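Cont'd.
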Amino acid sequence: MTNEEFFGGAALQSWKLVVGRFDKALAELSDEQLQRRVAPGRNRLYYILGHLTAVHDRLFALLDVGARLHPELDEAFISNPDGTLADPVPAAELRRAWSEVNARLTAAFEKFTPADWLARHTQVSEEDFAKDPTRNRLAVVLSRTSHVAFHTGQAVLAK
Amino acid sequence: MTNEEFFGGAALQSWKLVVGRFDKALAELSDEQLQRRVAPGRNRLYYILGHLTAVHDRLFALLDVGARLHPELDEAFISNPDGTLADPVPAAELRRAWSEVNARLTAAFEKFTPADWLARHTQVSEEDFAKDPTRNRLAVVLSRTSHVAFHTGQAVLAK
C-alpha cells in the first residue's frame, strides 16, 4: 500500500466503525423502543434512524457514486422535523433501508482510489473546487462519519 | 500541497470542526447546567467534560507529542464512573483544562507531515506495527474525533 492508500483506508475504517456502532445500538432496541424520545421533547429514535438514512441516501448523488435508493424519505426526515408528518414507513422497513444504503455506500468507498477520495463532490463547481480543493469527497465522508457518531451518542441513552 | 498533505489536512479539519462544536455546546451552558444529567440516570455534563479532557490529555503520550498536562483527572474521570468520587476541580477550571489540552494538541497536529500521521502510536510495538500499519496516529485522531462527536450529541440535549 502507498501512503495515500493508507490515508483513504483510515477514512474508510473510521466510517465502518462508526456506522457499525450505530448498527449495534439499533440492534439492541425493539421497534417499540424506537418510538422513544432520546430526551424529553427531543427526537424519537425512529426519526433519527430515518434522518440518518435519508442523509446517507443523499450521498450517492453528492459523491457521484450511483442513484439514490430512497428519495421518498426526504419529506418526512429532512424537510420536516419529528412529529410533523405521519410516519411514512414501518420501523422494520426503515432498518432495512438503513442497512442497504450503507452497504452500497461502503462498497463504493472500498473501490475509491486516493484520487477518488480527493476529487470534488458534486455540490461544488469545478471553478470553486480549483480555489478550494479541500471541498472533496473525503471531507464529506469524514463529516457524515461524525454525524453518525453524534446521533449514536443519543441513541445509546434510550436503552 | 501534495495529495498526502490533503489527506492529513482533512483529518485535521475534521478534528477542529468537531472539537469546535463541543466547545460551542459547552459555551451555551452555565456551570450550574453542567451539573445536569444528559438523561435520567446517565452522566452529568460536568463528568463528560472531565472525561473528554482526560482522554484527550492522554493523547500527548499516545501520539508522542509532549508531556500530558492533567494526569490528576484520570482518577475521577477515567478510572471511576460519574458519582463515585467528589468533583476534583471546579467547572471553570475544567473548561480551562479542556481548552488548553485541545489547543496544544491541535498545534501539534498542525505540524504533522503525512509521514507523522501514518507513524505508529506508542501503544503498538514496532513489531506489531510492521504487521498492521493501520495502527497509526491518524486512526487514533479519527477515533477521538468520533468520540467527541458522540458526546456532543448528548451535550446538546441538556440545553
